Amino acid sequence: MLKQYLNFKLSQKLSPQQIQLMKLIQLPTQAFEERIKQELEENLALESGKNSDDKSLDESYLENDYEDSNQIQAEDINVDDYLSDDEVPNYRLKSNNYNPDDNDKSVPYASGTSFTQHLIAQLNTFRLEEESSLIAKFLIGSIDDSGYIRRPLIDLTDDLAFTQNIYTDTKKIEEILHIVQRLDPAGVGARSLKECLLIQLKRKRKTQNINLAIQILDKAFDQFTKKHYQKLIKKFNINEEQLKDSIQEIAKLNPKPGSSFSNNLRSTEHVVPDFVIEISDGDLKLTLNSRNAPELHVSKSYSEMLQGYKASKDKSKAQKEAVQFIKQKLDSAKWFIEAIQQRQQTLYVTMNAIMNYQKNYFLSGDEEQLRPMILKDIADEIGMDVSTVSRVANSKYVNTPYGTKLIKEFFSESMTNAEGEEVSTIEIKSILKSVINQEDKKKPLTDERLANILKEKGYPIARRTIAKYREQLDLPVARLRKEI
Predict the structure, then answer these.
(1) Same domain, residue pair 407 and 422
(2) How buried is residue 158: exposed, middle or buried, by Cβ count under 10 Å (0-12/13-18/19+)?
(3) Residue 176 and residue 449: Cα distance in Å, rounded?
């Protein structure tokens, strides 16, 4: 049975302009520049550079001249409700020494011979039958950037049958694989780390240390990787000095032979800081990268076309459709400019709060001066939502006197020390790393011992927490830090 009833529901929805603002806030400087270029290409009513006319867009175009137009009001975005009440002068958002002419507009690109082409060029120096040559080239094409063939030979056999119409067996493929493994750099074409290291050792001039290193990798690889040195000494009937010399030979090898070639062709990634913090007369000064503050204005010709339509007496259907199109473009341009201005304000206010919160660190550069700080601390400080602060922190960089830092690195949880004071987990990790660096590598400290040492320093931390921090610092367990 069907029933009709009224249902009252209160809900919140983001306007298209607010969604656009959120997307702009999370963009770093380089991506933001690309977004502006895209908008300039798509909306002819938006222009870059200084406006020859000091007057801003005549907002009278927002008035609706006829009933059938669906005009979206730009006032949907309430700046005062969203942003902090702090008034930041426009000059504070710009860098005084910025000159657009100084920018290098060229885009670097990598050129030269690829890793695969480099290997095939070497393969052409071998005399191989046509089928064997095709198989060898197929194997080279299966080598990853690290220099390894990760797939089983039986799978490669099936691929050769389906893609190259070559029917063979794993024995034939393995024979040709040994030819590929004779190419440079040494170790290329290996199927495992063990095979990669052995290929490199067998190419070296044979000495007592090299021969022992080959035996260790060939017959006791697991014991070697787990650093069971006493078992190796007993197994090969050698002394500690002989084992140390052999391990040094292995340490000279390249576990990723392909990376030595491919890294030369990899484009260098440049980090463009979104903010700059300087120390002036013992005080901190924050500026926003001027590339985040482009000069945009609404096209004067478009607004003049709209004014010309208003002045005309006879308004045809085609003219109404044209003016509706012009209005939409003008609205879009105006909203985009407003969103950029709000983005500048949001970025500046958020980073300014972070700078003041971590003032002691920015003045000294000492990581132990970093205060515990979470997103909510800054959100409460500036009166914004936590998600907005997160968008600013996750992808933005700040140039400090101590290097360029990712903003989210300044956030950390708090922990209470023995004196009842709240300290940052960053400070604890720094102390933990220092203790591990100073330990005796012949007898590295266990997590239990590290926990006791930090407890003695006034940081009561459980062993499992030590293990978590150690993993975050990319430090192995005590057994794997052992040296002879």
Answers:
(1) no
(2) exposed
(3) 52
Q: What is the pLDDT of residues 312-362, one digit of tens each?
A: 666 677 777 777 887 888 888 888 888 888 888 889 999 999 999 999 889
359 within some domain? yes
| Whether residue 311 sits in one domain with residue 273 | yes
Tokens of 70: 């669906």
Q: Does 131 reside within a domain?
A: yes
CA–CA dist 180, 107 (Å, integer): 36
Same domain, 91 and 191: no
Q: At which residue do the structure tokens 């069907």 appear?
A: 2
342 and 82 Cβ atoms separated by less than 8 Å: yes
Q: What is the pLDDT of residues 149-163, one digit of tens each?
A: 998 989 989 888 888
386: pLDDT strictly greater than 60: yes
Task: Using the 3D structure, point to which of 362, 395, 411 is the last residue of a domain.
Answer: 411
- Residues 283, 396 within the same domain: yes
Question: Is the per-residue pLDDT at 230 higher than 60?
Answer: yes
364 and 285 in a common domain:
yes
Tell me, yes or no, whether 229 and 276 share the same domain: no
Rounded CA-CA distance 42/230 in Å is 70
Q: What is the pLDDT of residue 72?
A: 34
| Residues of the domain holding 158 | 115-262
d(CA 38, CA 164): 43
Mean predicted lDDT score pLDDT of the chain: 78
Which carries the bigger pLDDT value, residue 420 or residue 6? 6
Alpha-carbon gap, residue 195 to 189, rounded angstroms: 9
Please check whether residue 418 is in contact with residue 460, taking contact to mean a CB–CB distance below 8 angstroms.
yes
- Choosing from 228, 262, 296, the residue where a domain stops is 262
Does 71 fall in a domain? no
- The residue-averaged pLDDT of 196-211 equals 91
pLDDT in tens, 428-441: 888 888 888 888 88
